[in-house]
Amino acid sequence: MLRPMGTTNVNPINGVPFGQEKTREDCLARAAWEYDQASRLRAAQRPVGYQALVEGHERAARAYERLAEERPSASRPTVSPRTPLQEKMRKKSQKGRAHARRARSASSPDDLEIYSKSELDDMPRLSQGQAEDLKVEDEVDGTPTRWWLSRMTREDGETHAIHVEQLIDGRWEMVHKYGRPDASRSHATKRQPASRAAAAAKRMADPLRPRGAHQKWNVYSGGKLITSVFYVPGMEADDVRRGLIDHDGYPSDIKVKRAR
Question: Which residue from 47, 115, 127, 155 could staple onto 134, CB 3.0 to 4.6 Å apart?
Fold first, then answer.
């Protein structure tokens, strides 16, 4: 089992020294403490290699839960009231166990905020991906969540206008898609404000960005070509680079060039 972090060798939840759990209640209190430590490490995301420590605490918690089934209940006729510190640690351990469960599974679509396409369209862009714009970044029951608005249309093969992803087990995963995308790029331009529509028309007139076609970009790292990506027309090299780094996880030293 992992040794407790800090200077005390006593479980603050019930006051029992670590390693001397004799009753069912002692084992469950130790399991709660282990879950709480795992939750703290996951939230802080440090030190380096914290994932292994999280797994160790969770394994220890599950082991103590199994051990609790074999141990007898305390024979004391009465239970001493918890001190304020013990009550605080008990509540935090409950939150830690709930957070650990959420971190391993996606939120239900019923728990997600449903933004309309027009609402997201009026929001400022937080980051730009390969074919979508990050519009909202928030938490749902403690789980980091992002709402992306697709720039693609049904003409491009897009099936949903809004993509929702969550950070699960340290990775961003798509958990929900909804909303009907625009039928075509020309239809999307009609819905834009006049200034935005004029800018879009100017971009579409650029001979290097032919209407209805995707622009190819070459991605370089260390002076070598590592891949090529395709983006919708109207994007600049800096936008492509930031999108690849912020959304797609490419290294920060990449350079992008428009393919001829």
Answer: 127
